[in-house]
């Protein structure tokens, strides 16, 4: 298969949630995604419109869930970005665009990427004059541009499978590892979160038959669990060529947003979210191990216990918001690290 052939699939000895029924429920959907999705091109030219299943209340609930867990979900999406760099077909496209392989280029690219995501969470995607809608159109245009570049050099263009794996990068860990992230929410909040990403995926060109979030909350968890275990875990254990260069550039670049970001520590935390054994061994230095231990403490203890979460969550949410605010408007650390002329 054109894209899927480069993805190593491991047989699950035990399904993600420990239920044999889980594999049976998701097996056919996963096979369709892996085989048909790899051959189906991403459609960034389809008309933007709300699908018949769209629910405004659920969509807004998903937006509110993000705002409530701003810090933890932001971290989960950074870990997701690292994970998708381990996918061969995706990292080849990113290398081709030459916008992510150096720290300063990665800083520019991923700040824009995360800003798009924040615009989607804050705005009305269907209001033509809104920042969220303009952001959506910008991302669709970037996908079209990347696809044209890929065709020119003989690479397979962006596929539905690539889009879905990227969708997982933005929402998968938040759905599958809430305890490890210290997330707070009800079942209804999670349903809103899933509906939000189903809608965003649809508007960006993911066909409904491939959309990770098309089913119920439990069905989505099972399918995401299968994708994690059979695609991302093998990819993280044996990543694609170019992964370390691109992931280090990502972390080194995003350091200018948060100076506590450290490659080894964040890789270890990503492995932990993915359920990879011996994730702590990824951090090779004492400093990296210390940061990883602190990161685990923040997410699983400070945010994981109601005794401390009532003050730890708003503090960490504010600090992350402030870091993003400064990075978007006055990126002082980026000026110091890369030089002002390199940022714009």
UniProtKB/TrEMBL annotation:
It comes from the Eukaryota. The keyword Zinc does not apply. Residues 76-223 form the ER-bound oxygenase mpaB/mpaB'/Rubber oxygenase catalytic domain. The chain crosses the membrane at residues 70-95. GO terms for molecular function: oxidoreductase activity. Pfam families: MPAB_Lcp_cat (PF09995). Keywords: Membrane, Transmembrane, Transmembrane helix. InterPro entries: MPAB/Lcp_cat_dom (IPR018713). This is ER-bound oxygenase mpaB/mpaB'/Rubber oxygenase catalytic domain-containing protein.
